[in-house]
Every structure is written in structure tokens, then in C-alpha cells.
UniProtKB/TrEMBL annotation:
One Pfam family in the UniProt entry: UBA_8
InterPro entries per the UniProt record, alphabetical: FAF1_2-like_UAS, Thioredoxin-like_sf, UAS, UBA_8, Ubiquitin-like_domsf, UBX_dom, UBX_domain-protein
Protein name stated in the entry: Fas associated factor family member 2
Keywords: Coiled coil, Cytoplasm, Endoplasmic reticulum, Lipid droplet
The keyword Cytoplasm is annotated on this UniProt entry: yes
Source taxonomy: Eukaryota, Metazoa, Chordata, Craniata, Vertebrata
Cellular component terms (Gene Ontology): lipid droplet; VCP-NPL4-UFD1 AAA ATPase complex
One of the GO biological process terms: proteasome-mediated ubiquitin-dependent protein catabolic process
Protein species of origin: Chelonoidis abingdonii
Length: 442
């Protein structure tokens, strides 16, 4: 577990991370910084990656087989051999130590080979790849100091994905803890200021110890021969490919020259890939615009068809309403005609002209026609109404008016006249002229 800084520095680091990333909880800021060994730059970068949709290094996706092209015969390889002994004293020391070295490494290899039959190599099971990376970085800083290239704090697969997405070179360093040249390389070469500047400005840098499961897994994929080992990986022909291998104890100036040479020799592939990616993006944007235009046209056509359908539906409904109104009007007229026939059949017979109790009435209809008929004094005014109603030329609704004095005859039952009066009670004389007033419009 990393040792947190002093209290004031802890609060200041949390506030700085909170301002840069927008994290509201101070506890979450502290937890994030502890995960990244109190490295604010790494914590901010990981948080920004999460906001962009890139999985956090502390929540990696399921492990997948490493897919890096290492079979390209055009891989640039640079191996630094150990210096040969010089002089009689050097050769003497070398020859004296040779049997001991041979015996030691032979017995060590036999012992490791035998142990593998008894207990499988624990490094073959990767359970916490991010923990392996953080542990190696913590060990590196304790042993060689905090001035070093910026380590990628994530799994090897995530580093490959970021390098592919950002079209950048990825420099992989595999650290051999037991190798005699590892300490000198890390202290004098990897931590040299000019090397740090080159790595931080031109590429991503991922490193791990081969004693860790994650580092051992990468070692099985890259197949290094000796340590220190560096591999330059980039997107080439749409595949992440190893384009350079540097093995052995290499000096800072030589390392800068070799890395620059590898990048210059393969820069055209990245430029070509950027152009292809821009062309693909433009094609995708154009296709998206065409799809949007097609969808807009389709929606417009659908809207037109919907309006036409609604208009046809409204027209059909209007036609149905008109047809229903016609049918209703036809039924009403038929009912009215049947009612006129029934009223006509129910009329009492017309009195004889010589009957002294008879009344001769002349009706003036709204169409200026005249109708004449005799009624009996004892008959109700309803009979007069039924007679006029039974006539074809009479209106559907009407009232009967007398002139002297001018009044409306109560021919139908009302609240004032529940039982209409007879002709005699209504004050009609033997000869009368009555006017029929059309009330249909009212």
C-alpha cells in the first residue's frame, strides 16, 4: 500500500484533482489518488479517459489474448552485446569464472524446470494486472527515484488500444529483476533527462517486471532474448505491429538515436493511417448525412401520406355524415307522410252544407293557396289541425290564427288549454277565414 503524503499535501492534492476532474466527494478523490500512488497526472488522465468512454485501468475489461504482430521479418532489431574481456587479467578472470557461471545457470535452469512439474508457474495466472503495474512503478520509484518517463498506468491491452486509437508509438519495457544490467539501465539510461523528454513527447511508455503475471504474459508474447528489453509497437497495416526491438545494455545517446531512427522509418505508416482514418471519418460523416437526408425525406413523405390519409378519412366521414343525414331526412319525411295519411284517415266525415250546426272554414295557406272545408260546431279544434296537417301542401309545423279578433287558436294541448276547446267554444261563426302560419323555420 502506498504511503500518503502529509496532511496539508493530501488535502491540496485532493482539491487539485477535484478542480481538474469535477469529482465532488473528497473521499473519492483520496481513494483515486491512492490507487494511482498519489500521482496526480496519472489520476487525472485515468479519470478523463473514463469520461471519454475508455475503461478505467482499475476496472479493466475481460482479459483477451494479446494480438500483436511479431512475425514481420522487417522488424528492426538492435542488440547490445556485453563487452569482451580485455587484457590478460580480464581474460584470466573470465576463464576462472566461466565454469562457476556455467554450473550456476545450468543448475538454476534444471531446478526451475523441475519445479514447473511440481507446481505450475504462478505468473501464468493474471489476476490483478493493474496491481502488477502499480506495484512495479512503486518499486521503480523506491529504487531509482521519481524522475523517470511517465509510465502508462494500465494493462498492456489498454496501452495497445490507446496507442491504436491515438495513432501513437508505444514503447514497451520489460524489466528483468535478476539481470545484472537492469539496475544500470534504469538508473543511467532510462532516467536520463534527454531520454525522459523524448519518451514523454513522442510516445506512450508501458513497463512491467517479468516477475509479475502481467509482465510475464507480455514476455510470452514478445519473446525477448535478454534484458534490458524494449519493443516499439505501432499501428501498421491496420494491425498493432512490433517495428523495433532493442535488447541489452544501451547508453542514453544510443537509445535516443535508435528510437528516433525507428520512428522516422515508420512515420509514413502513421501518416498514411491518419489520412485513411480521416477519409473513413469523412466517408462516415457523408454517409451519415445521406442517411439523415434520406430519413428526413422519408419522414416528409410519410407526413404527406399521413395528411392525405387523414384528408381521405375526413372526406369519407363527411360523405358518411351527409349520407346519414339524407337517410335521416328521408326517414323523417317518410314518417311525416305516414302520419299525414293516418291523420287523414282518422278525420270525421265532413257535415252536410244544410246542417245548421256546420261551420264553413276557408284556410289561407302560407303559399297563398286556399282550402275550404266544413266542420261541426261540437268538434274540437284538434280536428281542424289534423285536417290541415293531412294536406300535402301544408307545412310541417304551423299555427292557426283568426282575424277578428286576431288570436291564435289553441288547436293542440297546452298548459293553458290541456283539452283544446270546440269550434263553438272558440267563438267561431258559421263562416270563418283562418290563416295558417308556418312555424317550420322556427
Amino acid at each position: 500500500r502506498s504511503v500518503p503524503p502529509q496532511k496539508d499535501l493530501t488535502k491540496g492534492s485532493c482539491l487539485c484533482l477535484q478542480d481538474l476532474t469535477g469529482i465532488e466527494s473528497m473521499d473519492q478523490c483520496r481513494h483515486t489518488l491512492e490507487q494511482h500512488n498519489w500521482n496526480i497526472e496519472a489520476a487525472v488522465q485515468d479519470r478523463l479517459n473514463e469520461q471519454e468512454g475508455v475503461p478505467s485501468v482499475f476496472n479493466p475489461p475481460p482479459s483477451r489474448p494479446l494480438q500483436v504482430n511479431t512475425a514481420d521479418h522487417r522488424i528492426y532489431s538492435y542488440v547490445v552485446s556485453r563487452p569482451q574481456p580485455r587484457g590478460l587479467l580480464g581474460w584470466g578472470y573470465y576463464l576462472i569464472m566461466l565454469p562457476f557461471r556455467f554450473t550456476y545457470y545450468t543448475l538454476l535452469d534444471i531446478f526451475r524446470f523441475a519445479v514447473r512439474f511440481i507446481r505450475p508457474d504462478p505468473r501464468s495466472r493474471v489476476t490483478d494486472p493493474v496491481g502488477d503495474i502499480v506495484s512495479f512503478i512503486h518499486m521503480f520509484e523506491e529504487k531509482y527515484g521519481r524522475i523517470h518517463p511517465v509510465f502508462y498506468q494500465g494493462t498492456y491491452s489498454q496501452a495497445l488500444n490507446d496507442a491504436k486509437r491515438e495513432l501513437r508509438f508505444l514503447l514497451v519495457y520489460l524489466h528483468g529483476d535478476d539481470h545484472q544490467d537492469s539496475d544500470e539501465f534504469c538508473r543511467n539510461t532510462l532516467c536520463a533527462p534527454e531520454v525522459i523528454t523524448l519518451i514523454n513527447t513522442r510516445m506512450l511508455f508501458w513497463a512491467c517486471s517479468t516477475n509479475k503475471p502481467e509482465g510475464y504474459r507480455v514476455s510470452q508474447a514478445l519473446r525477448e532474448n535478454t534484458y534490458p528489453f524494449l519493443a516499439m509497437i505501432m499501428l501498421k497495416d491496420r494491425r498493432m505491429t512490433v517495428v523495433g526491438r532493442l535488447e541489452g545494455l544501451i547508453q542514453p545517446d544510443d537509445l535516443i538515436n535508435q528510437l528516433t531512427f525507428i520512428m522516422d522509418a515508420n512515420q509514413t505508416y502513421l501518416v498514411s493511417e491518419r489520412l485513411e482514418r480521416e477519409e473513413r471519418n469523412q466517408t462516415q460523416v457523408l454517409r451519415q448525412q445521406q442517411d439523415e437526408a434520406y430519413l428526413a425525406s422519408l419522414r416528409a413523405d410519410q407526413e404527406k401520406e399521413r395528411k392525405k390519409k387523414e384528408e381521405r378519412e375526413r372526406k369519407r366521414r363527411r360523405e358518411e355524415e351527409v349520407q346519414q343525414q339524407k337517410l335521416a331526412e328521408e326517414r323523417r319525411r317518410q314518417t311525416l307522410q305516414e302520419e299525414k295519411v293516418r291523420k287523414s284517415e282518422c278525420l270525421p266525415p265532413e257535415p252536410h252544407p244544410d246542417d245548421p250546426e256546420s261551420v264553413k272554414i276557408i284556410f289561407k295557406l302560407p303559399n297563398d293557396s286556399r282550402v275550404e272545408r266544413r266542420f261541426h260546431f261540437s268538434q274540437s279544434l284538434t280536428v281542424i289541425h289534423d285536417f290541415l296537417f293531412s294536406l300535402k301542401e301544408s307545412p310541417e309545423k304551423f299555427q292557426i290564427e283568426a282575424n277578428f279578433p286576431r288570436r291564435v287558436l289553441p288547436c293542440l294541448p297546452t298548459e293553458e288549454w290541456p283539452n283544446p276547446p270546440t269550434l263553438q267554444e272558440a267563438g267561431l261563426s258559421h263562416t270563418e277565414v283562418l290563416f295558417v302560419q308556418d312555424l317550420t323555420d322556427d
